[in-house]
Write a structure and sequence with these properties.
Chain lengths: 823, 412, 275
Amino acid sequence: MKLTRRNFIAAVVGGIAGIQATPLPWKITDDVAIWTQNWPWVPVPPTGEFTEVSSVCNLCPGGCGIAVKKVDERAVKIEGRTDYPVNPGGICPVGMGGLQLLYDESLRFTGPMKRAGLRGAGEFTEISWGEAFDILAGRISNLRKKGTPEAIAAVDGNPEGTTVSVLIKRLMKAMGSPNYVRPLSITDTYRMGNLLMQGTLAPMAYDLENSDYVLSFGCGLLEGWGAPGRVMNAWGMWHDGNPAKRKTRIVQVESRASNTASKADMWVAPKPGTDGALALGLAHVIIKSGQYDSRFVADHSSGFDDWRSLEGTNHIGFKTLVLEKYSPEQVAKITGVNPKTIVSLAKGFANAKAPVAIYGKGKDSLNGSLYEFMAVQSLNALKGSINRSGGVLLPDPIPLSNLPPLEVDAIASEGLKRPRLDQAGTMRYPFTDSLINNFTDAINRNPKSPVDTLLVFSANPFFTLPDGGGFKNALEKVPFIVSFSPYRDETANMADLILPDCTYLEKIDDIVWPTGLQYPLYGLSKPVVEPLYNTRNTGDVVIELSRAIGESVGSGFPWENFEEALQARAKGLFDAGGGLVSYDPDAPAWQRQKAGNGPKPGYKSFDEMWEGIQSGGMWYRPVSSPKSWQGLFNTPSGKFEFCSKLIAQAIEHYSNKISKKAALKNMGLAAIDDEACMAHYQAPKAGADRSVYPLLMLPYEMINLASGWIPSPPFLYKTIFENQLLKDKSFAAINPKTAAKYHLEEGELVVVKSPAGEVEVRINLFEGAMPGIVYLPLGFGHTAYDEFLKGKGVNPNNIVQAGQDPISGYPVWWNTPVKLVKV
Amino acid sequence: MDSPLLPHGVKRCSTWAFFFWTLPWVALLAWGGLSAFLCLWKGLNQTNMSNIFAFALWIVFDLAIIALGAGAFFTGFLTYVMGQKELKNIIKPAVIIGFICYSGAMAMLGIDIGQPIRGWFIFWHANIHSMLVEVSFCITCYLMVLAIEFIPIILENRKLEEIKELRIFGHNLHEIMAVFAATGTFLSFFHQGSLGGMFGVMYARPFAAREGFYIWPWTFFLFILSAIACGPCFTILCTKLTEFFTRKKLVPDSAIQLLAKISAWLLSLYVVLKIADYLGWMYGIIPRSGLTFESFFREGPYGVYLIVLEMILCGILPAIILMLPKARQNQGWLIIACLLNCTGIVLNRFLFIVVTLAIPVMPFDRFWGYLPTWQEWGIGMAVVGYGFLLFSAAYRYLPIFPQERELNPITE
Amino acid sequence: MKKGNDHGKNKYGMVIDIDKCTGCGTCMVACAAENNVSVRADQSDKERTITWMNLYKISNGKEFPHTEVSYFPRPCMHCDHHPPCVSVCVSTATKLDFNTGIVSQIYTRCIGCRYCQAACPYGARYFNWWDVFPQDKGMDRYLTPEVSPRMRGVVEKCTFCHHRRMRAKTLAYAEDRREIEEGEYVTACTEACPAQAITFGDLNNPEHEVSKLIKHPFTFRLLERIGTEPKVYYHSTRDWIRKLGDNFLPGEYTPVVNQTWAEEEWSTKPGRDEF
């Protein structure tokens, strides 16, 4: 047959028609549908053996218990543990999203690296661990050989008292540098206040669960203060059952309608930085009405009444100070709080059976003010809420063993004699042990950086310090920076050498006494998965580094590995006796057990105990009955001191050296004599022309956004509202009245300008914002990490202009004058 | 060049002129083709649709052209079933417009769904409770009917008519057209209705929800009525547009006026019933949900002005114009009235689709706004381009206006 | 065949205590982590981001310093009566399971027409505008095999962690039990809430805590008067919060006053500023 056009077309048409009659079209239709149901690019998570590993979350000092669900070697979900005393079941959103910090490869360093590109560009080339140790140990040995070990400095973000921080401190000492600094947190304020008023070195122990009136001065109870798992569990407990019969009332003192303020039974909004004055106003009402605990005041306190010294000088006491200067009307002027509110608040506190006043500033990751703390703690003393159930407990410090004394060589002992760059512990800052803001200034002030090699551990000071970008400038001057961060954070991107740590789910590490917990707890996290990459536990790296440096530095670290060092310290826990390594949810640790009735530790030897700690992740001592008053306060007077003798001594000591006026000025004090030794209110210095910068900028923290050195898991951005972050712009919350004054509308772009810098944000009109204040969220504005975090919003720390808190020298980051300029 | 294909005894422009005329429409099609490719390849993230605006421009377009395309079934119904012989003069363009609208809508729907390849699940796993299933079944069937109705028109092409078998086939088809007209009417009745029902049954969206008769909310009937009220007007508009471009009179005024008159009555009836529906809704469903009419327009870009436009400017006004014989006999007024009528119906569909979704139901939720992306416009415009192309080609190659020769005798 | 081994029907439901809820968002993160929910670089695009459990921020609207904010955590309501989404689904991809009360979604059957999204007044349904993410960067390593990741172009929603019920039942069967106890099956959000604000259980079982809580006068549901019969309940002592749970014409809302429940007098005073 000849193929013509006609029969070709006929064949094609016929063929097509014929195929319709076969199953082929149906088969194809079905098959492509099945293909869409099994698209090869849609992941099918492999299945396997389902297991669960118990550990402890180490993302914040809260140390909540976590159970990690695994499928074969993969961790697939983090859940809260119900068999852990800190957090019976719940954890915070950051901890919940923790697996993204483990598995998001672009957030992490996959092995030791050295810088390849410009500083901050984040370009690195991978090297071996051996090479990394050679580079670093060589540099350190050189500095030591030159006799300048103090040019090595360390910024350590590990919570104080953790074994890795103890080792780092020890390494610095062994090398001969006094320049070991840490980013400040609220625990630093607690430590100092505790020392000055109570003479104790144990952390603050707020017995929240047993209290019936929690008066929180600025603690972001629901924003992540303390151990979030614990506080939020307490919150649920407080609101359990019949609301008419609720036992505990919560009052929040804060200038912004935060979650805590809104959810509390009462919200009082003083101007930022005047919390101390408000506390003293309450003290005034309580003292005036005679509702204070006269027994505690008489028996266990000093400095309440006026007194006469042995030399015959008259001194005023707390009572006189408060009655004279802090009447509700006077306090109203300072704080802007209605005098009636002050009186009713005082009544509420005074009438409660077990009230507790707690002090904080948002989360616990930024410092507070010493005098504010003292004012709040004075309230507790007035009501006798110290060493009493539901108040402030005074437990002993956690009985971890001290490491064997360190013998330093001649180079090191010379180096250690050199002054600290941050002047902490000098007469100017007598009670401060580390002042990172001064450390930054010291580098920035000198034409040549006094620091040659900077070691950064578990910290991202570039991003987290409220210093107007000071640390960033300092980093640019430091010749050699070493980061031990597992994450590609801003500070690490500036580093010349990376010795990456494992993430918290890949390593053994300890948590020492979560912030604010009322009983001692030692937590131990363990590797939930094998390290994914060529990273090493910084604890091990420090020990190895000491060996690489050799000489006396190496011999100061006799442990095989980090775990041995952990055990060496944990010996003390065994020796102290009575600690529990397992937890029964039916007997909460905060519930006061009748003497001898509580659970008994089930171990007989140290090894048994250590095994218990390793499997359960905890050692703790439940709350016991109140302690004997004998020797409870380790102050010069042996009592609770409304008027701190240590401060008096320090002022006197300094005054002997320079004039008293100069001493007070250097210490940042406006008050003199007795007032300077007691809680009092001192208006912060304006620091800028307020007619140019009429508003104040206050950074605020959110529980659903990590603002510290840990990056936020990308999941968290699901929880951020669109009036907090929209595409690449974060929002400033301001009161509609303030907005009206500057003709600003919702969503409008503005530049927030402070003397320290400027940031561009959108406006969020929020009725819960105090008029005159610009609230900027902390945690946005990363310039590092990956597309999930980078370039989203701005970091308010960059425009903070911080003054110095009197005596402590801590940055006053809540008082930045700003103005708003329309874009 | 293509003169052997042109119908006998009529004047058509040169091939080149026709070629240039098609260019803008081809360009629209190309724009749409690119958009369609992007949407199918990369997904619907190419649009500004969202979890709020699950239905958006495309669905508005679909519902609008399906309503406007109702001229096909309704004219068919009047011509073949009701025996209005006068309308034979306009039935062919009406069928072609209907075919364009329905096939365009089907194509858009194919891109609109997230899993086009599984589109046939509507039929295979049909959920008989869903109004959208009813819509899908009826539209698909009706599109087939339209295709069947279209076939004899195509077979009237000069070249095709030369083939004897086709001519006989076409003629036979023509003979039984009344059957298909009746089927089409039935199918259209139900899918126009169920398109309305789709929104009326969303009982949890007080802005759209309506009470009704048995399983059919009032929107079911109102959508049918509004479709047959505007369909003839759209047919008139298309005819007038063709007449404008060809500079010829193609349809006798009697046919146009008959359609306009029928439309006038239907539109008037619709407006009355729609007002009753609005009142019943305002005093029934809205307060029962704890809402007020004003609360729907508290914020957001969509205001109460839309309803004023829909009911007064594009409802009552065209109804009056079309009702008055003097007014509708005036070309200008007739066209204005038809335009307003069609706009009103499109606005009605827009209110039910976009405004319903923009209004939050939970008191603490926010109002939303929506602007389509160029890809969404592209798909919509492609249907316009396709319509112009197909209709132009039909006009050029098929004798779709039986009176053209009489009305425009060639004088040489 | 007899219908499974379920003796009697279950009707799972949830009570969320707004007074306990701290607005921390752990429920949202737990839900996303449990259910392999897609994460994209721009999550501020709230119209397109996927949050089966979503927090709505609410405010009493008063001026400073009387402003209060609060949150409505909103999972799928699992409407019990004629769920608006179920009847409209063209391809029978979503169903109300009469044995559990769970409104399910079959991703492989969904054609992505999104009619269900239009019909749902709670905004509880989410469309996959993009291909599933994360895929590269190693983030697929945390995906759990218990929940299948969804392909682009289909609608997904909260399932009351249905796979957890299967898990609980498997465990119970392994222990030779045919019934699961209260607390053996709870959703990921329930388990994760650090303030224990969420209670989950069987509404058909009068012994379950949820059955008791829903009788409380302070307990309410979202958009109750529309008649969807949600199985997610809320609880708050604050009137302004309860009032925001539904639409009310002026004067329609009556505060809860001195209701007796479980033989105890309940105060209605919201507490703030008053105690």
